[in-house]
Amino acid sequence: MTAPILKIKNLTTCFATHAGVVKAVDNASLDLGQGETLAIVGESGCGKTVLALSIMGLIPDPPGRITEGQVLYRGQDLLLLNDKEMQKVRGNRLSMIFQEPMTSLNPVFRIGDQISETLRLHKKMDAREAREAAIEALKLVGITNPQSRVENFPHELSGGMRQRVMIAMALVCSPEILIADEPTTALDVTIQSQILRLLDDLKKRMNGSLLLITHDLGVVARVATRVAVMYAGQVVESALLGDMFKEPLHPYTHGLLASVPRLGSRAELIPVPGNVPALTNLPSGCRFHPRCSHAFDLCREQEPQLLERDGRRIRCWLHT
Ligand code: SF4
């Protein structure tokens, strides 16, 4: 990979809870290259969304706090920026599409006004220019009759159209990095497919980079260049898509891939046994050891570190 456009180094994000302080993201390191799509996968509660919000500077403090690490965008550590400086980056150079458009769009403003606001803030456009750019953005994401759609309120649109509006809002300032958090979860299968194709097309057209958060390995196989697997707040493996799908090294990645149906295959699906541990009650040593069929004494006693080897990263005692 050429020098990554976004480099996350040893990032740790904690939350104060009634049961004590938990590390929702623990010592995460990841790289996103120019033009790449990095998919972050893992079960619910593994820290994927907290990682994305940490990159965007959107962790509510309190109860959350980034306690360690760096988020380097073109070499500049975003964690050292003040609120005003970060606002200039957010929505402009880095943008995010949230999981549920109905809760992310403001229900009392017309969608045209919501898109225009970003342009007026970051690009200093006047009202007329911003409205024209908003119409162009809606056209770009495949919304028909954009001239009249700008007048709609979010509740007047279907789920698929609202997600397209979210994408238009995120892309309107041509960000270099787009973070999409489960962008297709709330949509039916045919619309999911259209939205994924749209994201991929737009990323290529803008020569941007996409950080895609998903629990769906089918989605990963279709659009990712590189994959990172998270488990209980930690990155346990990251590699190029082909390498990971051909030869998963971490037993958890292996388990995830074995539990996904493949077209034309009669192989039995094997679910990963057990459940993800609560962050307030993590097992000793390797966090995956109670579910791992390869676990041995060292796994129960000491936590493995994330090590880099041959362009891959792996956190497992079997690969040290
Ligand atoms: Fe399994 Fe041990 Fe590797 Fe953890 S460190 S994934 S328990 S083999």
Level of helix content? 25-40%
Order of helices and strands: EEEHEEHEHHHHHEHEHEEHHHEE
What is the 3D form?
globular
CATH top level of the largest domain is: Alpha Beta
Please give a structural write-up:
The mean pLDDT is 90. By secondary structure, the chain is α/β, with parallel strands linked by helices. The chain is built from twelve helices and twelve strands. It has helices spanning 48-56, 83-89, 101-104, 111-122, 127-140, 146-149, 159-171, 189-206, 217-223, 241-246, 251-258, 297-301; strands spanning 6-17, 20-32, 37-41, 64-73, 76-77, 94-97, 177-181, 209-214, 226-231, 234-240, 307-309, 312-314. It has two domains: 4-83 and 176-319, P-loop containing nucleotide triphosphate hydrolases (Rossmann fold), CATH 3.40.50.300; 102-174, no CATH class. The strands form two sheets. The chain has an eight-stranded mixed sheet, sandwiched between helices. The chain has a four-stranded antiparallel sheet with strand order 2-1-4-5. The protein is 33% helix and 24% strand. It binds iron/sulfur cluster. The site of iron/sulfur cluster (SF4) has 13 residues, from loops.
Structural descriptors:
12 helices, binds iron/sulfur cluster, globular, 24% strand, eight-stranded mixed beta sheet, alpha/beta, four-stranded antiparallel beta sheet, Rossmann fold, 320 residues, 2 domains
How is the topology of this model organized?
Blueprint: E1 6-17, E2 20-32, E3 37-41, H1 48-56, E4 64-73, E5 76-77, H2 83-89, E6 94-97, H3 101-104, H4 111-122, H5 127-140, H6 146-149, H7 159-171, E7 177-181, H8 189-206, E8 209-214, H9 217-223, E9 226-231, E10 234-240, H10 241-246, H11 251-258, H12 297-301, E11 307-309, E12 312-314
Parallel strand pairs: 3-8, 3-9, 6-7, 7-8
Antiparallel strand pairs: 1-2, 1-4, 4-5, 9-10, 10-12, 11-12
Helix pairs in contact: 4-5, 5-7, 7-8
Bound molecules: iron/sulfur cluster.
